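Aggregate trends can hide what the representation actually does to any particular protein. In the encoding step, the backbone of a single protein was reduced to a row of integers, each denoting a local shape. The record that follows shows the chain in one-letter code together with its fold in token form.

***
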Amino acid sequence: MRCRAALLLVALVFPSVARADPPRRRVVRDYFRRTVSVGASLGVGSPLGLTGGFVELRPWRALGASVGGGVGGNFGPSVMATVLVSPVGTRRWALDLEASLAHHVSYAAGRTLDDGRALPGSSNWVGLGVASEWRPTRGLLLRVAVGRAWLLDTGAYGVLRERELPEAQEAVALLPGATPVDAARAALAGDTLGVWYVHLDLAPTWRW
């Protein structure tokens, strides 16, 4: 009897002891789903050229898309759209497969040779690559990617003659990487120009 009375007294004085709250379940969230990133990219041969910026939306863990623009590269400034698929990963890391379409505007747009011939004023590229992406915090994206891009309209560069290639190369090879003269050489050989690329992306990230 005394034991029951003591328990009743404890319940009245210390109700939190008598009714312990159930333990809270910890919700584990990954750092990719429902995020938007606005960042910068540095690369060689990449769809954004030597340097550029992008906006990336990732509504789902395994799928994202980005658009951006860049400067640099011998084919001129570019605009780009990319789709990212991440088949494997953890809450902070993902293996990305990227497919991109880029449009470059030539620095020499509108220029012609003495006899009226002219290299294309713009070019279109399609790229496929693989990337390792880290989210060290909820607010930061870091990605390193490598891949290969192909010039879709290589045949349009076949306006130069073989003997003109060396002189033209000296005139347009302003930066590292492939040049319109490389495209002209590939066109004369009946090939498609393809280049390897690498880029590093860094971006602050927000969740919605």
The chain is about 15% helix and 45% strand. Helices lie at 2-13, 15-18, 165-172, 180-188.
